[in-house]
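dude i think i finally got it to work??
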Amino acid sequence: MSRARDLANKVELLNAITATASELNILDGATVTSAELNRMVESNTALAAGSDQITNVVSLTQAEYDALTPNASTLYMIVG
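look at this
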């Protein structure tokens, strides 16, 4: 299957999911709303074998960052 057709199939599936459900339950038990699903970015971790995976991105101030225990799989964006 061509890459363009594969992408078109994924877009079609995403549209079907968001059109027919307001929430999606994912494997770890978390609930994702259709609005959150629309903001998700596909990630291919196979491209960087052996590297750490980033599974979360957080925007926060330096003071907020200093007050937490950092998680190795989270990318922290210091703002303000």
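The two ends are 46 Å apart (CA to CA).
im so relieved honestly
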